[in-house]
Amino acid sequence: MRHPALPRQTRGGGAADAGVTLIEVLVVLVLVGVMAGTVALSVGNGGRGDVAGQQADLLVARLNRAADEVILTGSAMRFDWTAQSYGFSVYQGDSWEPHSVALLAEPHILPDRLRLGETAGSATLSADMRLDDGKVLALELLWSGSRAEQITFDGINAERVGQGS
After folding, report:
1. How far apart are alpha carbons 154 and 97 in whole angstroms?
2. Are 64 and 101 in contact (CB under 8 A)?
3. Where are the domains of the chain?
4. What are the φ and ψ backbone dihedral angles of 112, each rounded to 5 degrees?
5. What is d(CA 163, CA 148) in angstroms, rounded to the nearest whole number?
6. Where exactly are the transmembrane stretches of this chain (predicted)?
7. What count of Cα atoms within 13 Å lies in the side-chain half-sphere of residue 13?
8. How far, CA to CA in Å, does 73 sit from each of 40, 69, 139?
9. CATH code, residues 51-163
10. 31-69 pLDDT, tens per residue?
């Protein structure tokens, strides 16, 4: 006869109500995932209104990626910009061609009210990691005519150096 205070035994010798089932664990994981997703969507990245900052970060990342490609391939790279867009090209044979890396191949169009300086320009990075004029490239992102972000590029590293008005 079994004592009522003792747990019922299972085939494996353990108590029948010990631990949790796989289904219970999966249900908890699904609930945690849904809650984490809800929190992430409601909080966001905190910078939805900072278009200039996001575009500055994107330009810095692309300049750094282009410099990495120059190191890896040993081919010169050119960075061309207008007030509304920028793009990258590489020297192949006897002409400048769109960059072979998909991320850098297509020109990037800036959002409305954001401009990359007042005039168009270009900078060439040689295979020895030197900019064509030997100086640090300083670019300004302008938001509705006012300086919003400044980016510098020395041929090896690009970075955001400040926020304006």
Report:
1. 23
2. no
3. 51-163
4. -55, 150
5. 6
6. 20-41
7. 0
8. 39, 6, 25
9. 3.55.40.10
10. 898 888 888 777 655 444 588 889 999 999 999 999 999
